Amino acid sequence: MQSKNEPDGQKRSFIEEARRAQIIAAAVQTIASVGFPKASLARIAATAGISKGVISYHFAGKDELMDQVVVTVYTDIAEHLLPRLAEKDTATDIVRAHVMGVAEYALANPERMRTITEIFVHDRDAEGVPRYGALAAEPLYESLETLYREGQASGELRAFDPRVMAVTQQAGIDAMFGYWMARPDTDLLAHARELADLFVRAVRPD
User: Fold this and answer.
1) Is residue 4 part of a domain?
2) Which ranges of the sequence are annotated as binding DNA (predicted)?
3) What is d(CA 133, CA 199) in angstroms, rounded to the nearest whole number?
């Protein structure tokens, strides 16, 4: 039986997919434990109980592995959020559910959240430029912008620039997680409630 495609169009076997998933899980565990700068492929391989060569067989290098870690975590977050957002009928309820939902996910998956934070902060290209900057967040901006535009079209939300609000909301969420990572005793859900209230008040008509 076959599974997802390789870059050249060939399909991977389920065994290959399972091995890739094992390596991704080991990368998450390693980065969360020792930080991105110390998470070499050799160290990730040791966590997985395999040789470094096995990682090199399945991934072109650390950049590709990190890309797949980010995709895996973001996909998991989306799968957590979408059913919760689908239950809401209004744009403001969706805004609130989005902020609260990501906070709830973080509390349930602190290792994954610490890992992507480490990657976003420390992963840089050969010129020293962060590999995950504002452009990497474009899909998040687009989804929030669409939500705001639909709310404005229905008359539920006031007039404002949807792109500016989308960027601001995502920046607030990112800052919330950064603060929580630096101060783990922070009440993350209380922070999320305040943040959600702030954005709901910002977008609804007075």
Assistant:
1) no
2) 40-59
3) 23
Is 1 domain-assigned?
Answer: no
The pTM of this model reads: 0.86
The whole domain housing 87 covers 63-203
DSSP β-bridge partners for residue 5: 11
> In terms of domains, do 88 and 170 share one?
yes
Do residues 86 and 187 share a domain?
yes
Over its length of 206 residues, how does the chain's per-residue pLDDT go in tens digits? 333 555 555 677 888 999 999 999 999 999 999 999 999 999 999 999 999 999 999 999 999 999 999 999 999 999 999 999 999 999 999 999 999 999 999 999 999 999 999 999 999 998 999 998 777 788 889 999 999 999 999 999 999 999 999 999 999 999 999 999 999 999 999 999 999 999 999 999 97
The number of folded domains in the chain is 2
Residue 13 backbone phi and psi in degrees, to 5: -75, 165
Q: In angstroms, how far is the first alpha carbon of the chain from the final one? A: 58
Give backbone dihedrals phi and psi of 2, rounded to 5 degrees, phi first: -120, 160
